Amino acid sequence: MILPPEEKTYHPSDGLFTDAHVPDFDAYLALYKKSTEEPEEFWADVAQEFYWKKPPSGQMLQYNFDVNKGNIYIKFMEGAKTNICYNVLDRNVHERNLGEKVAYYWEGNSPDHHQTITYNQLLRNVCRCANALKLLGVKKGDRVAIYLPMIPELVYTMLACARIGAVHSIVFAGFSSESLCERIVDAQCNILVTADGVYRGDKLINLKKIASEAVERCKERFCVVVKHHAFRTNTDASTLKLMTILLFLLCVLQTPWDESCDIWWDDLMDGVSDECEPEWMDSEDPLFILYTSGSTGKPKGVLHTVTGYMLYTSLTFKYVFDYHHDDVYWCTADIGWITGHSYITYGPLANGATSVLFEGVPVYPHVGRLWEIIEKYGVSKFYTAPTAIRLLMKYGREPLQRYDLSSLRVLGTVGEPINPEAWLWYYDVVGQQRCPVIDTFWQTETGGHVLTPLPAATPLKPGSATCPFFGVQPAILNEHGEELEGEAEGYLVFRKPWPGIMRGVYGNQERFESTYFRKFPGFYVTGDGCRRDQDGYYWITGRIDDMLNVSGHLLSTAEVEAALTEHPSVAEAAVVSRPHAVKGECLYCFVTLKDHKEFNRTLMEELKRKVREKIGPIATPDFIQNAPGLPKTRSGKIMRRVLRQIAHNEKDLGDLSTLADPKVVDVLFSQRCEAAA
Ligand code: WT7
């Protein structure tokens, strides 16, 4: 494929966005200027749309980004009182007359399973769940762990927590029992909400079994279980009913059950009131914790608070997708990740949007599933990840041609740098050159989009996340912390907080400061490399710490290494990334075995299983190479650069003079893995 030169820009909005919120680049610049020069007025305007028990007043933003001047903190509209659940539900129902509007089209893993949920229904279900949680003793400030698949109960539970002031800690339902347990313990949750099981494609995952293993390790009090895989069906046909009952019995037999702490969701909700007064929260009260990989191996509990997150996800959703009331919006992420928190739950609901909530996977039961859903619901704004685009590209145009995709207006992407081939395919084939491709750069920590085009306003360049969102002030620093002007490449940092930025690492102020603020005092450090071109556009070049991005999920090399070295045969392990056609990056592992241990297929399978058990299937290694020795400096530090070059098959290894024993490099090169393990 011939790629366009970097200067070529795309501006497909003509005629498509006659009523855009930000109609052109000048309008963007004017709003951006206001957001940075008069932030108090800018955010006060945004706040006006929301319901306040006690309105914001006085100083809006207080913060310190400089470790040399004391503790790092960010406070936004402190003292104001509100409730985010009230704002995303009751406000739509009572003040905006949206009660009968569809909040979610739930689309199950199987195309036969679907459900429509209006704002009225959502509010009632959330209130019931909130009351049920209260019955279990959950109070303001308590942490609730949620380990659920993409079903409506996941949204009910998170919003129920927000309603009563409990802090949700959602763990992606693809993590292992060990990862789940680690997160439950770290956040000191005493309730876990899970489901019996879920089908992902044609694979059944016994969630309750995994949850029970986790609970056993960490002894929390209650485990609420949604009957899902056994029960959910849309049809009343008697044969199906019979099958469902049989499946249910089968499931009860398989579902580990502890009478002393396990409760079925339905039993808990039975007879509970569907009205619940919200708990009025201070702006800076915690809203949720969400874990993200840390470069030391232990995941960090990223903490977000109520008001800043509410305003920021709401505003980014409105502008970045140029949201209008007749839109049908679909984000394919899982709510277990920040993308789902911000852009399936809070941002869309705050705007009163109609969204698709999808449980399944892109290619089940057929490779046209996503396109089928777009046609079925008339999706106008679509948001997915580069890894999904690359996967679907493999099947060519034909599966798309079977469906009517003319409802599409905006195509978003997130999670990793999008390669220009994938960008152009998304633009040409999916969007038929009508729809702007919105490459949104952000992180669990940023709460919402920070670098992003706006559909009608920003000329696009394939592979660039373009320009900062309102209130966001990026800078590029060199290794010495000097700020680079104009065209430059270096560390991407931010010089000031915006409302949605994280407030801390749960229970660990020291880690918060050392991870994000110590390297360059005065700046928030993203961990990403970045280039700014002659037009001032930003291009993310990838992580510059020991993190890997596999299919849009961050993993730490240390975490995978720790899993590998738990195997009794392994003496040492080093993990680096290798490019992968669909996943973007994949794991290439070097393992040094203990004396007299043999490297063979069985061992490889055991190592893969070990990683899956410790972290989850997303971390499964693609390549495992036997490494009789690892390239180390004289002080014993592993030279990852060299390992990365071996994994990438880069023959020119540059300066190896700091290596204690350069010969190991030849050995590793000669035994390099060509094919995946
Ligand atoms: C890391 C954050 C934000 C939701 C999903 C991931 C990478 C994310 C982009 C993009 C280039 C991107 C960065 C970032 N990343 N979006 N559009 N272009 N890189 O959240 O797990 O916190 O990961 O994902 O490396 O730091 P996360």
Automatic annotation (TrEMBL):
InterPro entries attached to this UniProt entry: Ac_CoA_lig, ACAS_N, AMP-bd_C, AMP-bd_C_sf, AMP-binding_CS, AMP-dep_synth/lig_dom, ANL_N_sf
Pfam families membership: ACAS_N, AMP-binding, AMP-binding_C
GO molecular function, one term: ATP binding
This protein's record includes keyword Nucleotide-binding: yes
Limits of the AMP-binding enzyme C-terminal domain: 559-637
Transmembrane segments: none
UniProt GO BP: acetyl-CoA biosynthetic process from acetate; lipid metabolic process
Reaction(s) catalysed by this chain's protein: propanoate + ATP + CoA = propanoyl-CoA + AMP + diphosphate; acetate + ATP + CoA = acetyl-CoA + AMP + diphosphate
Protein's UniProt keywords contain Transmembrane helix: no
Protein name, UniProt field: Acetyl-coenzyme A synthetase
Organism of origin: Sinocyclocheilus rhinocerous
Gene this protein is translated from: LOC107750908
